[in-house]
């Protein structure tokens, strides 16, 4: 036992074997300056290398024999998190089975521990400087000779522009590899200006709330007059005035001297939305957006920390905004799957919001036209309080929706991916000077390329999936790992030249429209056309300003857009989202179709929507057509109850991956067996275990995959069991190549 002043430090390295607290003495010159949240430099390991880390605790005595090393210096002048965000990081670690350090890094303002702070708004990057064909020949040549350069080249074949920092980060290549390619003239450097949200507060005229309808007023009263804080679910069709409700709630919360966080899906964080907040709250808002430059973002964080901004509007990660004294957290479009993080820790913003709301004694307001089945169920049970808006305050009517049977179209000789009705609609709109949106849930030119002679399908060499054809580049790309090759002219298996693409992606549809209607202008919007951060907004502005006839796109066009001249919406393949092997498939399809249809007729003119399907009798499509959320919910909740899916249980996925197939299954079986033994002994409630089994995609990025599913109630006991499993795995000697990811209620697991 030693006494004195000590700090518990977590080292800022992702290595799992050092993911624990190390104690350091606080030297005299730093006394009083080191607190919880301090970013410090410490000597580490046998060589006493200087590394940075974060202080998680302060103590006056530790169990230790020998001399305790001292903290060398402060790495950042101000602490980077407080006790509350530390508690949030513990919550992340416990609930999402991640490492200490990744939990800490998640709650930090992005970019706060970067060595050289980038303050300018210019990003330096690289673009391809030679034609694709040449690039491919060179790529083949480089793969053996200079694999790093090959990786850089491949990345730039796939993307129009990549920041130099991203190139080195993604490929692991050094700057020398970039320079070598530049010197050869293969790529050239380019600079782009980072997208700025046009929040020029002085230019936005202040606005006041319209007189609320009775329903709106009573919703606002319920949230702000409640004696005890709680979670509210605000349900109302699009345009029913939900946003107006939470603007009013925030206004009241601010009057009591408290602060508020508003989460919106990244995709709907448009200037339209931001302006609405800015005109109500002026400079009191801070906007956190992934497209802000580091400099802008750190400015926004400064304004939050010093109390200048007390309303934070942002996408998922804004839930970690360092606000004090929170009175209300709002999650708009709460059903959106983008609120669940894809990388560790795979937190759900709603769960973190619940935790922070509880800490602050704040209320949580969830809003949606199509709430997640889980949330609506909780509202039905009384866990959440349900607030409903049953009609629109404006005279705007919902669009008229029709369902077209594509099998019939086919039988009648229409081979195009646009039904006769939709084709007529597009032309009619053109004549009336109105605009249309077409939605297709698939990017690229087609889903896969196969040989008509022998049936061979061209697959990724790293993953067990077919490659997607991108016509403008003449490439086949893997949407899981990014592997890219040139489209071969002959079948790699039998040599036949009859190789053709199947199915229709956005590019193919675009081409078809141009052929059918040379007079109609089209803008295509998908991840391929919106690679650079600026592109998304730029394309939307063009659509609005140039009055383009058709906006064609993937998910990106489904949400949040509000264009008064759009009167026709087409859902090209409504079945697409239904034919996915995931228990949330119905829910997602319902949401998507309802949302897309909601894009039509936002202005004065009434809107219409055409849903194309091969399953016209499908219930989900019918209910979405009628915008009948309640019936959809009643059907869906019964299915979930029968088959035991959330909200009736939690689903835990244990994913094991390895570059070698050998030994993986045996190890997975061993893990499954031990989980069963421990669960049987300690977990006193029923549970179900499935697997280990191969995942739907058996190999991704060169790693084989086995998964174990466990349905249970993820209570403290279960959490503890899985946390121990993770520790066991990290220490396990016979699993050096195998990595384990435990995930709580994963979305769209593959
Ligand atoms: P939602 O968030 O449910 O889609 P909004 O709050 O955006 O709905 O409201 C839709 C439209 O109706 C907006 O243009 C808004 O200004 C208007 N609106 C909302 N509430 C009222 C009201 N009480 N009186 C008049 N107009 C309203
Ligand atoms: Zn063949
Ligand atoms: Zn791949």
Please outline what is shown here:
The chain is of the alpha/beta class. It is built from 21 helices and 30 strands. One zinc ion is lined by residues 451, 453-454, 456, 491, 493-494, 496.
Written description of the protein model:
By secondary structure, this protein is α/β, with parallel strands linked by helices. It has five domains: 2-80, no CATH class; 201-389, Rossmann fold; 400-443 and 507-640, P-loop containing nucleotide triphosphate hydrolases (Rossmann fold); 444-504, no CATH class; 650-744, Alpha-Beta Plaits. The protein is built from 21 helices and 30 strands. The strands form seven sheets. The chain has a seven-stranded parallel sheet with strand order 11-12-10-13-14-9-15, sandwiched between helices. It has a six-stranded parallel sheet with strand order 16-26-25-17-24-23, with helices on both faces. A five-stranded antiparallel sheet has the order 2-1-4-3-5. Helix 1 crosses helix 2 and helix 17 (585-597) runs parallel beside helix 18 (619-625). Mean pLDDT is 85; it is low at 115-120. The chain binds adenosine-5'-diphosphate and zinc ion (2 copies). Adenosine-5'-diphosphate binds at residues 210-213, 216, 236, 238-244, 393-394. Adenosine-5'-diphosphate (ADP) is lined by residues 210-213, 216, 236, 238-244, 393-394.
């Amino acid at each position: 036992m030693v006494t004195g002043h000590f700090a518990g430090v977590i080292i800022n390295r992702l290595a799992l074997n050092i993911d624990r607290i190390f104690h350091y003495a606080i030297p005299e010159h730093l006394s009083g300056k080191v607190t919880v949240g301090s970013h410090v430099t410490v000597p580490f390991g046998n060589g006493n290398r200087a590394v940075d880390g974060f202080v998680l605790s302060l103590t006056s005595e530790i169990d230790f024999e020998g001399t305790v090393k001292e903290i060398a210096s402060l790495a950042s002048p101000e602490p980077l998190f407080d006790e509350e965000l530390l508690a949030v990081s513990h919550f992340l670690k416990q609930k999402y089975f991640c490492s200490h350090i990744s939990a800490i890094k998640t709650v930090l303002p992005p970019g706060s521990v970067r060595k050289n702070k980038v303050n300018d708004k210019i990003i330096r990057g690289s673009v391809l400087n030679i034609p694709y064909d040449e690039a491919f020949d060179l790529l083949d040549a480089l793969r053996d000779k200079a694999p790093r350069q090959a990786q850089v080249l491949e990345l730039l074949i796939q993307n129009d522009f990549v920041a130099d920092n991203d190139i080195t980060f993604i490929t692991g290549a050094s700057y020398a590899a970039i320079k070598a390619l530049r010197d050869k003239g293969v790529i050239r450097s380019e600079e782009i200006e980072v997208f700025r949200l046009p929040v020029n507060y002085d230019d936005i005229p202040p606005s006041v709330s319209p007189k609320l309808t009775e329903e709106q007023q009573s919703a606002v009263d319920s949230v702000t007059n409640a004696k005890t804080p709680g979670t509210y679910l605000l349900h109302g069709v699009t345009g029913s005035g939900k946003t107006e409700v939470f603007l009013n709630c925030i206004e009241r919360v601010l009057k009591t001297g408290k602060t508020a966080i508003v989460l919106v899906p990244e995709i709907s964080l448009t200037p339209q939305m931001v302006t609405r907040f800015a005109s109500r709250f002026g400079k009191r808002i801070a906007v956190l957006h992934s497209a802000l430059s580091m400099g802008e973002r750190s400015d926004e964080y400064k304004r939050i920390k010093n109390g200048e901004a007390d309303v934070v509007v942002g996408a998922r990660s804004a839930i970690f905004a360092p606000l004090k004294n929170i009175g209300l957290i709002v999650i708009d479009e709460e059903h959106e799957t983008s609120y669940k993080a894809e990388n560790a820790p795979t937190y759900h913003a709603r769960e973190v919001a619940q935790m922070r709301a509880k800490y602050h004694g704040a209320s949580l307001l969830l809003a949606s036209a199509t709430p997640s089945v889980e949330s609506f169920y909780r509202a039905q049970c009384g866990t959440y309080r349900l607030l409903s808006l049953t009609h629109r305050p404006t005279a705007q009517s919902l669009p008229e929706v029709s369902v077209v049977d594509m099998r019939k179209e086919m039988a009648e000789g229409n081979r195009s991916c646009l039904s006769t009705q939709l084709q007529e609609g597009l032309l009619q709109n053109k004549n009336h000077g109105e605009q249309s949106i077409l939605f297709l849930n698939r990017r690229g030119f087609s889903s896969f390329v196969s040989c008509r002679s022998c049936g061979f399908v061209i697959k990724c060499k790293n993953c067990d999936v077919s490659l997607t054809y991108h016509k403008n580049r003449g490439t086949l790309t893997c949407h899981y790992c990014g592997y890219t090759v040139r489209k071969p002219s002959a079948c790699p298996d039998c040599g036949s030249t009859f190789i053709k693409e199947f199915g229709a992606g956005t590019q193919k549809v675009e081409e078809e429209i141009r052929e059918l209607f040379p007079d109609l202008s089209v803008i295509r919007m998908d991840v391929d056309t919106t690679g650079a951060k600026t592109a998304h907004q730029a394309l939307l502005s063009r659509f609005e300003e140039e009055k383009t006839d058709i906006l064609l796109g993937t998910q990106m066009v489904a949400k949040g857009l509000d264009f008064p001249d759009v009167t026709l919406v087409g859902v090209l393949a409504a079945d697409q989202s239904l034919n996915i092997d995931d228990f949330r498939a119905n829910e997602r399809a319902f949401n998507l179709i309802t949302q897309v249809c909601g894009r039509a007729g936002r202005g004065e003119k009434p809107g219409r929507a055409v849903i194309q399907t091969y399953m016209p009798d499908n219930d989900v499509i019918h209910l979405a057509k009628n915008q009948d959320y309640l019936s959809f919910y009643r059907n869906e909740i019964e299915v979930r109850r029968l088959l035991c899916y959330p909200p009736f249980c939690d689903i835990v996925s244990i994913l094991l991956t390895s570059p070698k197939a050998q030994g993986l299954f045996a190890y997975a079986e061993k893990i499954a067996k031990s989980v069963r033994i421990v669960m049987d002994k300690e977990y006193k409630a029923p549970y179900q275990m499935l697997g280990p089994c191969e995942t739907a995609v058996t190999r991704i990025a060169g790693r084989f995959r086995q998964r174990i599913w466990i349905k249970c109630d993820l209570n403290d006991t279960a959490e503890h069991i899985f946390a121990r499993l993770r520790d066991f795995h990290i220490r396990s000697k016979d699993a050096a190549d195998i990595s384990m990811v435990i995930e709580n209620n994963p979305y769209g697991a593959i």
